[in-house]
Amino acid sequence: MASTIRDVARSAGVSIATVSRAMREPSIVSVETLRRVRAAADELDYTPSQLGRQLAERRHGANGIVFPDLSGPYYGEVVVGYEDVASELGRAVLILATHGRPAAREMITRLAGRCDGLVVLGHTVSDEALLELAERGVPLVTVARPPVAGVDSVAAENHRTAFALATHLADSGARSVVFLGNPDRSPDVTERRAGLFAGAREVGLEVSELRVETMDEQGGAVAAEHLCQQPALPDAIACANDELALGLMTALRERGVVVPRDVLVTGWDDVMAARYAELTTVRQPLRDLGATAARFLDDLIAGRRAEPRIEVLPTELIVRSSSSPRER
Amino acid sequence: MASTIRDVARSAGVSIATVSRAMREPSIVSVETLRRVRAAADELDYTPSQLGRQLAERRHGANGIVFPDLSGPYYGEVVVGYEDVASELGRAVLILATHGRPAAREMITRLAGRCDGLVVLGHTVSDEALLELAERGVPLVTVARPPVAGVDSVAAENHRTAFALATHLADSGARSVVFLGNPDRSPDVTERRAGLFAGAREVGLEVSELRVETMDEQGGAVAAEHLCQQPALPDAIACANDELALGLMTALRERGVVVPRDVLVTGWDDVMAARYAELTTVRQPLRDLGATAARFLDDLIAGRRAEPRIEVLPTELIVRSSSSPRER
DNA sequence: TTGAAAGCGCTAACAT
DNA sequence: ATGTTAGCGCTTTCAA
Questions:
Q1: Is B107 in Cβ contact with A97 (below 8 Å)?
Q2: Do domains B5-57 and B159-283+317-323 have the same CATH topology?
Q3: Residue in A79, A28, A61 with CA at minimum distance from that of residue B83
Q4: Chain A (227-286) residues lying within 8 Å, Cβ to Cβ, of chain B
Q5: What is the pLDDT of residues A208-223, one digit of tens each?
Q6: Transmembrane stretches, by residue range (chains A, B) (predicted)?
Q7: Digit-coded pLDDT (tens) for B254-278
Q8: Which of B95, B133, B249 to mutate: most A Cβ within 10 Å?
């Protein structure tokens, strides 16, 4: 059994209040007392119980972060950026992966009971669930999902860069483009789609949409099959993420389609494989997303902020040969 | 202010003990009382304080997982496998990334004070630090590091598959191979190196070693530069991980070296980019590693296990054209 | 500078 | 089936 504050107090011949003071504010205790307490603590191998502390202080000293999944390169980076800042600020980090489970709401509610505040990423729970938490007074920051009234939010720019992507495709000689993705899967996708459509209209690019069930390589392969059954391929295919684009390119090539000669393909995310596949894509400040959320949350918990904040971090179009006219 | 068990008790006209019972074991309370308590709890929007519970039960209901980093595809998958099982078992998950920081030891000690047990991945802290925790009675499971006396351990097989890799290279026509990596970076690497060396000797393959500073694409590029300055390239280069191999291949090609005609290259991990680069590599059961660790830890915490366990999960050689003789 | 004592919100004997 | 009460290990007034 680990020793408690009482053991140390007895052994040092002081009261527990003095031990407490010696541990948290050594300067307000006489040097001699401090010495004795320290000696006793060392001797007994005493570490203050977090549980005792937390209950007395009525704070957890921990934050939660909720995400759909951690496979794939995306959320891992965001979580790292978050963890880095949070642990710098001396707070523990609790994680929760929802995996699209319907029980997500209860899971998050439970999590909320274990920490001082929550960061919620992407497509994990409904806005109502968040609002309920917010009403209960749980400090909340969302990342990569549309702002919820009164809740802090951090996101990566989608619309403008998707607009720029449309322009780039037109400049590369495309006359038509199809957007490949599933807007139901994530709010980000909806914005990318809207940006691409807006850009396409602006530059006179004929634009349409093809929905996929899953936004992974499998989904890309399915889309390739579908597209190849049409009378003609579009000039360009803008995919909602890289995995989709990679799966698509692979499947197209298996069917003898040459990218980018026969069709331009683009992704979104700039995962590592995108470089090796020479895929034009969009890079997001993933770590920054997490780090910013961590700071926002800390401000909320410390009560340093009243007005809800909405921050949109810039993204960057990365042009590679999968959409480059020079190589066609 | 959130309502407490006393508020509910008063409002329902019962004692706090009854409220406690109604919340945790409804069956031992009369239906009428249960109804009244539930009504009061609903009315007051009562959720039992985790902090109060935890202190009274003297358990955190949470486990920690410690890893070097979450960028790259490796640890993220392990953490997901872990989180999945742990949350299934009703335990919260605390994460800690050490980033090779020297303060890792204190960070882990702090973390240990917040949970009922710890999973420690790879190159994060010294064995002594772990032994100290184990002595303090903290349930512990290590993953992907050499077993520490008395501590449960889960790892992926390295030696045998590295041995098989050497055989494969010899079968592909190689007469010499260099192992590229940095054994100081991770215990896994040491084992892969040993396995490769043993296999190479067995099949009469000339084997040597080249150390890199960093085991990422940058490290691979540096190695390429070094190798190209030698009078001749080896027949094969076995890299300690995929990132190294990918960086190496890219840099070699920039220098006009043709893979696999001029030199065979292999990696380790089977990251997504490896498929697109046609890289021969070794696949590890990452999620399983995490899931197994979670179960081991739960057994320890529940006191279901006395003898320390060591589990080694099998890995699989994935042959692609970067080392295939048929394409040479 | 130090100590006594009253919580923090809950669980779990023990008693009824 | 329910209530009383004594903790769990700490922090923090309030006095001395």
A1: no
A2: no
A3: A79
A4: 243, 246, 250, 271-273, 275-277
A5: 999 999 999 999 999 9
A6: none
A7: 999 999 999 999 999 998 889 989 9
A8: B95
